[in-house]
Write a structure and sequence with these properties.
By secondary structure, this protein is mainly α. It has eight helices and two strands; from the N terminus they run ααααβααααβ. It has one domain.
């Protein structure tokens, strides 16, 4: 077994664990995400899927931001729960922030401009699947930012991004990674339902 396959297996295993921690909103998710994203960064770079490679570099960076943000939001959630009466705190485990219209508009603008810019850049440097790679990269970057901000709607973005990422990996014969993204897609549906049922706006 070559080292590329070993890296794929490592990314698959840590990626699944990462997903479980994400659904449970456990802060250690961000630490594991650094390891998973670093490995995926190398794999995409090896296959010359440059936008996805840069996306995983972005994941590494935002993991530090997300860790800090979730720690702060978790503290606010505990304060809110302490002010509740009865057994409400037993059923609420997810801290949420409300997604506003301004964030949606800015995110849409970034998605359009980011996709166009990246696709042209990738065409110039000779990347593969440039328009799809650019779209998935930009959408995933936005979804990760929404995740760090604890918007439950981030799961809706991940459903779309993971579906396209799975197809992208299949086209590059990264079959284990395609399985990972397919699992991500299905789990994002569950994640949205779980966060909706268990979440509390802070």
């Amino acid at each position: 077994m070559d080292y590329i396959k070993l890296f794929e297996i490592f990314t698959l295993i840590t990626g699944v664990i990462y997903l479980i921690l994400e659904i449970k909103q456990h802060n250690s998710m961000w630490v594991l995400g650094i390891l998973t994203s670093t490995t995926a960064l190398f794999l995409f770079g090896y296959e010359k899927v440059y936008a996805s490679m840069l996306l995983n570099l972005y994941y590494v960076i935002i993991s530090f931001i997300g860790y800090y943000q979730w720690k702060k939001d978790s503290k606010r959630l505990k304060e809110n729960l302490n002010s509740l009466n009865g057994n409400s705190e037993k059923s609420v485990i997810i801290h949420l922030n409300r997604l506003n219209v301004k964030t949606i508009l800015i995110s849409t603008f970034v998605l359009i401009i980011g996709t166009l810019f990246l696709s042209k850049l990738l065409n110039y440097i000779g990347g593969e699947m440039t328009i799809l790679d650019a779209f998935v990269t930009t959408l995933s970057a936005i979804a990760t930012f929404w995740l760090a901000k604890s918007y439950k709607e981030q799961w809706l973005l991940w459903i779309l991004a993971d579906a396209f990422s799975s197809y992208l990996c299949i086209s590059q014969e990264l079959y284990l990674l395609s399985v990972l993204y397919f699992i991500y897609c299905l789990s994002a549906i569950y994640g949205y339902i779980h966060w909706t049922k268990k979440g509390l706006y802070i």
